[in-house]
Design goal:
By secondary structure, the chain is α+β, with helices and mostly antiparallel strands. The chain has a single domain, classed as Jelly Rolls, CATH 2.60.120.10. The chain has 2 helices and 12 strands; from the N terminus they run ααββββββββββββ. β10 and β11 form a beta hairpin. α1 runs antiparallel to α2. Bound molecules: fe (ii) ion (FE2). The site of fe (ii) ion has 4 residues, from loops.
Length: 202
């Protein structure tokens, strides 16, 4: 398949999925049923394996620190910054503390494995692990704005990360700092590369 054709066909498939996801949120609201339906629609998108490969979404070069960083490619986002879809391409050496998102969030696997652990807040204001799910191709997890999770990658992996609002707009995401025994705020944004076609940008 010619490279340009692939990019255009991928953009079409992504646009179709995001149209459906807007409709799902509008009809089911930000509910458990709604976010699980969004997860299922992204699992359907993930069956187009030829669109979502490490060749298309490569890891960044070694940054000189001795290890490569993970990176997010923004592959869809509305003009008002809602419905943001990213490809998370990671070398696998990544672990996060327990955190919320302040908007709904969905993770769906393409390559490799991303362990998701889930937590509840304890009466003492700490976190207690209540379950986990290994995200890999054909599976995913769906979270409401207050749900807490952490992610753990040991192997090279490629995943969809989709949020109700773009990461650069999420300035109130809390995480539990176990060492400090305290809740802190993640800075908005992240290591994001523009992954959309020129004509999709406005
Ligand atoms: Fe997260």
């Amino acid at each position: 398949m010619h490279g340009t054709d692939l990019k255009e066909r991928r953009a079409e498939a992504i646009a179709g999925a995001m149209d459906d996801i807007r409709r799902i949120e509008s009809s089911k609201g930000v509910t458990r049923e709604g976010v699980e339906a969004i997860r299922d629609r992204l699992i359907e998108l993930s069956t187009h394996r030829e669109f979502f490969t490490f060749d298309e979404f490569p890891l960044p070069e070694d940054d000189g620190s001795g290890r490569r960083r993970g990176v997010l490619f923004r592959i869809s986002q509305d003009p008002d910054d809602r419905f943001a879809l990213y490809m998370n391409s990671s070398d696998g050496e990544l672990s996060t503390p327990a955190h919320n998102h302040t908007t709904w969030a969905v993770v769906v696997g393409l390559e490799g494995q991303e362990l998701n652990r889930f937590y509840e807040r304890t009466a003492e204001g700490r976190v207690e692990a209540v379950g986990e799910h290994m995200v890999e191709n054909g599976t995913g997890v769906a979270m409401l704005p207050d749900d807490l999770h952490s992610i753990h990658l040991d192997t090279r992996s490629l995943n969809f990360h989709c949020y109700g609002l773009a990461l650069e707009r999420l300035a109130e995401r809390e995480y539990y700092d176990a060492e400090a025994d305290d809740w802190k705020i993640f800075p908005a944004g992240g290591n994001i590369i523009e992954g959309r076609l020129d004509e999709e940008l406005c």
